[in-house]
Design a protein that fits this description.
With about 230 residues, the protein is mostly helical. The protein has helices at about 10-15, 15-25, 30-50, 60-80, 90-105, 115-140, 150-165, 170-200, 220-225. Helix 3 (about 30-50) packs antiparallel against helix 4 (about 60-80) and helix 5 runs antiparallel to helix 6 (about 115-140).
Length: about 230
């Protein structure tokens, strides 16, 4: 992988001291996930306020807020694993938090650019994330590869906000949104192709067909177990 996700282990190591503090204070990983959403909402609010008040300088706070979000996204998982508090609900909360963060951050651009462009970026990012989760559901391993993963999309948007603030223009944000849409859709295609290749690999077990009797109704829990 050649996207920012590939350097996540390095990024987490840089946060080790902060992680030690969080572990010592028994901070909940779920709390870190929620704070990441709040930080994204603040970044989105800065984008919206800068546009509505015609003060692009407010966008200067977006890059550090985006960096804080990425740090929190890395820490919630590492703290959960280190404190043995990793669980399915935490993973579900993390997914929901990521989608909410993307919507708050990218959707805020609707206040300063064409709304359809901002909503397109939110939608494309959502589909890219779904493609990664789909791979996990089928193969047991999530595809976090690019060319434009979650961290990359956030970085591109932050760069657009920074350049836009320095130039006093919305053009860099428009360019960033277009790049996110194109990159996210390319990511969907790439992940789909990787999933197809994985399913065609000899090492991947063939699906087992289960005959479900027509008689005697099957309880919902049983169907869920079979569906898994």
């Amino acid at each position: 992988m050649n996207d920012l996700y590939a350097i996540k282990p390095w990024f987490v190591r840089r946060l080790r001291r902060l992680e030690d503090v969080l572990v010592a204070r028994r901070v909940s990983p779920d709390a870190l996930t929620v704070v990441a959403v709040v930080v994204s909402v603040l970044a989105g609010a800065a984008i919206a306020a800068g546009g509505l008040l015609e003060m692009p300088s407010l966008w200067l706070v977006v890059p550090p807020l985006v960096l804080a979000r990425l740090a929190l996204n890395a820490l919630d998982g590492s703290v959960a694993r280190r404190t043995h508090r990793a669980r399915p609900f935490g993973a579900a909360l993390n997914e929901l938090g990521d989608r909410a963060s993307d919507a708050a951050l990218l959707g805020s651009a609707a206040f300063v650019t064409e709304p359809s462009l901002a909503l397109g970026a939110v939608a494309a990012s959502g589909v890219a994330s779904i493609s990664g989760v789909t791979a996990q559901a089928i193969t047991g391993r999530r595809d976090c590869g690019g060319p434009l993963g979650k961290a990359d999309r956030a970085a591109v948007f932050a760069a657009g906000a920074l350049v836009g603030a320095l130039l006093g223009s919305t053009v860099p944000l428009v360019v960033a949104l277009i790049a996110i849409i194109v990159g996210a859709l390319a990511t969907v295609v790439a992940r789909t192709l990787r999933l197809r290749a994985a399913l065609r690999a000899p090492a991947f077990p063939a699906p087992q067909l289960i005959d479900i009797p027509d008689e005697d109704p099957i309880e919902e829990e049983s169907c869920y177990a079979i569906g898994r």
